[in-house]
Write a structure and sequence with these properties.
With 271 residues, this protein is α+β, with helices and mostly antiparallel strands. 34% of the residues lie in helices and 27% in strands. It is built from six helices and 13 strands. The strands form three sheets. An eight-stranded antiparallel beta sheet has the order 6-11-13-12-8-9-7-10. Strands 1-3-2 form a three-stranded antiparallel beta sheet. A two-stranded antiparallel sheet has the order 4-5.
Length: 271
């Protein structure tokens, strides 16, 4: 074979923009075999037509198709590249990635909105009303305060229980007051994330819908003290439940979080 009609690996690298190491790697995978290898020097030489193979390989790299699957779209005996199947598969992968990225972007936007709300609550000494999203809380009875040895022990047990149940942990925890038999009962809670179908038949999980909350930053943990400030704004009968949890401010001090008490207000039907 006449080398003068072929491209050296360096020349092929220049015209394709693909690094020589990558071209050698493709050869090691068996997806870009040189048209000729000089038996004396071991230098690789390629046909110009192999640029189409490199374009297809780079397409796979850009889209995220595994190069180990590349032979599924080629036939060296012919040779040909089945671009239709390759493009269809690439489009399907990208659509899945776009959906995942949109979900992640939506989550980031929600986090950004909560940081803004939390920082407003942190600066404001007065109670404010906010619309907050739904949450799913795994409850255990608990009478103490947060950020103490007793609460840490209960919290550890609750976290392990959620994990062992096969459910995913959320990012928040805190105290919760729930009215039962005309009396307010206190619980420790940890948020549970994921599909609500996976939480079915779990009496420990309280599903709290999206709703309007009356919120106020507090200096220390004492969920029973919520009535000291909220009754000047709403009647106790208008409160569905009370949550005491962390404020998700921009500079989050995980070792000493800022706390907020939130009263979920009963929905009123307007005719």
């Amino acid at each position: 074979m006449k080398k003068k009609n072929l491209l050296s690996i360096g020349e092929l690298s220049k015209i394709t923009g693909v690094h020589i190491k990558s071209l050698r790697y493709y050869d090691s995978l068996g997806i870009l075999t040189p048209a000729y290898i000089d038996p004396d020097s071991g230098y690789r030489y390629y046909s110009f037509y192999q640029k189409a193979e490199i374009d297809a390989i780079q397409f796979c790299v850009d889209i995220g198709i595994s190069l180990k699957d590349f032979p599924n779209y080629t036939n060296e005996a012919a040779p040909w590249i089945c671009y239709k199947e390759l493009v269809d598969h690439g489009a399907s992968l990208l659509e899945d990635k776009i959906e995942i990225m949109q979900q992640r972007l939506s989550k980031l936007k929600a986090m950004r909105a909560e940081i803004k709300r939390s920082e407003n609550s942190y600066r404001n000494e007065r109670p404010e009303r906010y619309q907050l999203p739904q949450r799913h809380c795994w409850l255990v009875p608990y009478e103490g305060v947060l950020d103490c040895e007793d609460s840490d022990e209960h919290l550890k047990g609750l976290i392990l229980k959620i994990h062992n149940s096969g459910l995913r942990l959320g990012n928040s925890y805190g105290l919760l007051l729930l009215k039962e038999n005309e009396a307010w009962t206190q619980y420790l809670f940890v948020d549970v994330a994921g599909d609500t179908n996976d939480m079915a038949d779990r009496p420990e999980i309280l599903h709290i819908p999206t709703g309007q909350y009356l919120c106020k930053k507090v200096d220390h943990s004492n969920i029973g003290g919520v009535w000291d400030w909220c009754l000047s704004c709403v009647a106790e009968a208008d409160v569905d439940l009370v949550i005491e949890t962390e404020l998700f401010v921009g500079n989050y001090a995980f070792s000493k979080p800022v706390l907020e008490q939130r009263c979920l207000l009963k929905q009123t039907n307007k005719s």
